[in-house]
């Protein structure tokens, strides 16, 4: 069984920073793509930033403000979010493509709320 646990969300003022974490646990034999997505109220879930083999892809809206990183030893991923604004308010989900047993599958975290408000 595989589990993704997210942490680090919360309430922050505009211009502030937060760091999200996602830890994968269970019978994991390899990890390919790791990424963060978000879903604001009334909107579709959207890609924030992903990382694979050291290469990152990100949404234009977070360019220069958000940075994704991963720790392959800990099977963990992080999202450093700076210069937050109200449009960043959403539930953030981690998404991981990993090898569980002999099968590659994609897993989602439970989501963590990020609220940017004064």
What is the rounded Rg?
Answer: 14 Å
Average pLDDT level: 95
Strand pairing plus helix content: what structural class? Answer: mainly beta
Fraction of helical residues: under 10%
Instruction: Tell me how many strands there are.
Output: 11
Number of helices: 0
**Which percent range describes the beta-strand content?**
over 45%
Can you summarize the main beta sheet? 7 strands, mixed
- Helix/strand order: EEEEEEEEEEE
Low-confidence stretches: none
How far is the first residue's CA from the last residue's CA? 40 Å
Shape: elongated
List keywords for this structure.
mainly beta; seven-stranded mixed sheet; 118 residues; four-stranded antiparallel sheet; 62% strand
Give a description of the structure.
This protein is mainly beta and 118 residues long. 0% of the residues lie in helices and 62% in strands. It is built from no helices and 11 strands. It has strands at 2-7, 10-12, 18-26, 30-39, 46-52, 55-58, 66-71, 76-81, 90-100, 103-108, 112-116. The strands form 2 sheets. Strands 2, 4, 5, 6, 9, 10 and 11 form a 7-stranded mixed β-sheet that branches. A 4-stranded antiparallel β-sheet has the order 1-3-8-7, with no helix packed on it. Strand 5 (46-52) and strand 6 form a beta hairpin. It is elongated. The model has no long low-confidence stretch (mean pLDDT 95).
Summarize the structure.
With 118 residues, this protein is mostly beta strands. The protein has strands at 2-7, 10-12, 18-26, 30-39, 46-52, 55-58, 66-71, 76-81, 90-100, 103-108, 112-116. Helices cover 0% and strands 62% of the residues.
């Amino acid at each position: 069984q595989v589990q993704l646990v997210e942490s680090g969300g919360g309430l922050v003022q505009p211009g502030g920073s937060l760091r999200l974490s996602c830890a994968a646990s269970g019978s994991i034999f390899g990890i390919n793509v790791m990424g963060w997505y978000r879903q604001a109220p009334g909107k579709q879930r959207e890609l924030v930033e992903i990382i694979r083999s050291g290469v990152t892809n990100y949404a234009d809206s977070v360019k220069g403000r958000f940075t994704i990183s991963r720790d392959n030893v800990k099977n963990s991923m992080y999202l450093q979010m700076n210069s937050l604004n109200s449009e960043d308010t959403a539930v953030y989900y981690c998404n991981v493509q990993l090898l569980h047993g002999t099968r590659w599958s994609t897993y989602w975290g439970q989501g963590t709320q990020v609220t940017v408000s004064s």
